[in-house]
Amino acid sequence: MNPAEWLARTARAHPDRPALFLGARHVTDYAGFARQAGSIAAALAARGIGAGDRVAIFQPNSIDYLPLFYGILWAGATCVPVNGKLHAREAAWILGHSGTRLVFAKDADALRATEDIGQTVCIETGGPDHAAMLDTQPSDWPEPMAGDAPAWLFYTSGTTGRPKGAMLTCDNLLAASLSYLADVDDVAPDDAALYAAPMSHGAGLYNFIHVQRGARHVVPESGGFDPAEILSLARELGNISMFAAPTMVKRLVDRARSEGSDGAGIKTIVYGGGPMYVADIKDALSVLGPKFVQIYGQGEAPMTISALSRADIADHTHPDWEARLASVGRAHSVAEVRILDAEGRILPPGDVGEIAVRGPQVMAGYLDNPEANAKTLRDGWLLTGDLGHLDHGGYLTLHDRAKDLVISGGSNIYPREVEEALLTHPEVSEVSVIGQPDPEWGEIVVAFIVAEPGCTPAPADLDAACTALIARFKKPKRYVMVPDLPKNNYGKVLKTELRARLGDD
Ligand code: AMP
Fold first, then answer.
1. Residue minimizing CA distance to atom 10 of ligand 1
2. CATH 3.40.50.12780 fits 4-390, yes or no
3. Confidence (pLDDT) at 119
4. Is 272 in the pocket of ligand 1 (CB under 6 A)?
5. Computed over its alpha carbons, how large is the radius of gyration of the chain?
6. What is the pLDDT of residues 127-177, one digit of tens each?
7. What's the rounded Cα separation, in Å, for the pair 250 and 240?
8. Which residue, by CA, sits nearest to atom 8 of ligand 1?
9. CATH code, 405-504
């Protein structure tokens, strides 16, 4: 089924329901939202674009985003959402790789100026061509799409090498969306999905279930993540749900604390996409209360591998509470999760190996990349490249990506454990641990530390924070104080860049 049917049906049943908000301002109801999507679809069809074609959106979050996104699906085409923060050349590479026929772009001129743009037609969003498309007589109903038709070509963030295009089918999107109701949160019509993280990524995926339920969609006026703006929008609009990377949660919590706010109006913050440290989520709970759900996923199984429920996160009386907070929860309803050894054999609870997942949310494969497909998809299982273990209760704990594991003196050291320990030191704000090649040990543990403002934690005290919680051999041999950590556009720490910095020493 074409996911755009959810929009068409909601618009027929509840045309007057408020749908799209720019900041606190109501811009369009569901009738208007569907009309815009239908017009974009009709205009695409008039250009001969339909099933099997790819149409991209290259721009930051905006009020135009969802009508364009649905317009592309409504036409039966595949949408290629490209992170609006990418350089025009990086975006042009994705457009070329995906064979995109037409792109909606905020800065169409920058794209046109790149060498790689080839045959792709560029339409400037907000420009006259876009306006003419919106004036087209809308197509009445979304084009039918088969369950296995690609709906979203999801380019991975590519912290190493070129991004890969994960083909997400209609069924993948529907399975992931329905799992939200089963495993993350219920959604009511008076809820509001707030897009503070890029809609080209996981945050955008959560739009579907909010459309299905006829809820509101809020794009902050800043177009991005501004903690003060979010707290104020939540107070004004109420029942806000949002996805936030752990680094965003930390900034929101700091802002709420400084304002004396308890996050009134925020219903749910879904966090994931990178490690949430136990000290940080405890702090977040103490300031904002039980508003949190964690998810673990990747573009290849979008947002839908495991979830740590609101109840698990809030239940501080449970004897396993801390271990659960350090975990990524239990498998989503639709996900089978296994831990595999290097030969692909299933490991028992407690043993660490590669996390594999199977289910209706797992991508059909990477576009035109047989080598990556052979490495990643095996007998229907997606090999995530993440290391982890399951406990007897089915809780999954991540142990960093395989390539981030530090092997020092023959012992495996998971950076996450060291990072968790260092974060218990009150003067440490952020930390990232990597391995540095060493002739004697193979690798040594190096910690990059961002101190709390005005603080300079002493190495001896950092050592003490580690040895209070973890084995001595895991303690960093070197601390590097930095003003901030390098992060990609989704807020993930770029360990490759930290490694390169050490290489430059
Ligand atoms: P992406 O495909 O860009 O969303 O990146 C997915 C990767 O982010 C996963 O393979 C994990 O390494 C990491 N990740 C996602 N969710 C979590 C989480 N809840 N905790 C820790 N790491 C996560």
1. 298
2. yes
3. 83
4. yes
5. 23
6. 999 999 999 999 999 999 999 999 999 998 655 567 899 999 999 999 999
7. 18
8. 273
9. 3.30.300.30
